[in-house]
Design a protein that fits this description.
Blueprint lengths: L2 H19 L22 E5 L3 E7 L4 E8 L4 E14 L3 E6 L3 E9 L2 E6 L6 E6 L4
Antiparallel strand pairs: 1-2, 1-8, 2-3, 3-4, 4-5, 5-6, 6-7, 7-8
């Protein structure tokens, strides 16, 4: 390899490293951002922990339905309430449920990420399924 070819090879490698560290694929196209949806109405949020699985379904009128299933498969019932949803750019959102429960969402990919409930610091993976309304 000539000195000039080595120089171009190193410049191309350095450019690839820079692109990767700033969130660009080596093709120069930006990767898909992990931004939270601006609205959650009509969607479902699902997550699991060591005890079971949980589904929140959010209506456009500001109400939600919560369903829990124990890890044994037994339903732990449902409850209904009111919610508020707020986005904190670039990758966070907060759900306030019935004025006393707060779910903090951190998005790692579109409609996916980690959440914490109230003061529990253990993160749980979640997914959001957009509604068909």
């Amino acid at each position: 390899m000539t000195t000039m070819n080595m120089f171009h090879h190193h410049i191309a490698s350095f450019a690839g490293i820079l692109c990767a560290s700033f969130g660009f694929a080596t093709t120069g196209v930006a990767e898909e951002k992990a931004a939270p949806p601006q609205e959650i109405a009509g969607s479902k949020l699902e997550y699991k922990d060591l005890h079971g699985s949980y589904v929140y379904t959010f209506a456009k009128d500001g109400s939600y339905t919560f369903a829990a299933v124990h890890q044994s498969g037994k339903s732990e019932g449902e409850r209904k309430g009111a919610y508020k949803y707020a986005v904190t750019p670039p990758d966070k959102a907060k759900l306030s449920l019935d004025k006393d429960t707060v779910i903090a969402l951190t998005f790692e990919a579109p409609l996916k990420g980690k959440l914490t409930v109230d003061d529990d610091v253990r993160p749980h993976a979640f997914t959001i399924t957009p509604g068909k309304e």
